[in-house]
Amino acid sequence: MNPELNPRLRLLASVSLFALIVLCVAWETVVAPLRPGGSWMLLKALPLAVPLRGIVRGNIYTYQWAAMLSLLYLMEGVVRAMSDPAPLSVLMAWGEILLSATFFLSAIFYVRPAKRAARSQRA
Fold first, then answer.
1. Are 21 and 45 in contact (CB under 8 A)?
2. Domain assignment of residue 1, yes or no
3. Cα separation of 20 and 2, whole Å?
4. 18 in a structural domain
5. Please, is 119 exposed, middle or buried when counting C-beta atoms within 10 Å of its C-beta (0-12, 13-18, 19+)?
6. Is residue 102 part of a domain?
7. Is 82 in contact with 46 (CB distance < 8 Å)?
8. Lower Cβ count inside 10 Å, N or C end of the chain?
9. CA distance 102 to 99
10. Which domain holds residue 74?
11. Backbone φ and ψ of 87, nearest 5°
């Protein structure tokens, strides 16, 4: 029995993950870096690039662990939104919050039918 997976949620997850990668790189290199001229903080986008292929392909396992990974970015966004002194950095932090929450929710709801189907097969 194949579960009915929502292609719109898959697209939303893919787009929000890619946008989060772009935001992290732009934030730490051009828009509002910690140091003038950019910083090594741009490497924070690297862990997000690892699951990108599996997310685009719709791999359920990748969705599960990447959703948990996105919570780290949500957490960083909240901390920096509340603590960064630069208004532009705060704006980028709110973008990180929005994109990581969007990815998390779309990934969780994309995987939900597959998890239900697996649970019903075991019972």
1. yes
2. no
3. 30
4. yes
5. exposed
6. yes
7. no
8. C
9. 5
10. 7-122
11. -60, -35
DSSP 2: -
Structure tokens that stand for 73 in this block: 């970015």
Q: Which amino acid is at 91?
A: L
The pLDDT, as a whole number, for residue 2 is: 60
Sorted by sequence, the CB contacts under 8 Å of residue 3 that are 6+ apart come out as 113, 114, 116, 117
For the chain, 123 residues long, give each residue's pLDDT as a single digit of tens. 467 889 999 999 999 999 999 999 999 999 988 888 777 888 999 999 999 999 999 999 999 999 999 999 999 999 999 999 999 999 999 999 999 999 999 999 999 998 888 888 886
The pLDDT of residue 99: 98
Instruction: Name the token pair of 42.
Output: 């741009």
Q: Name the domain count of the chain.
A: 1
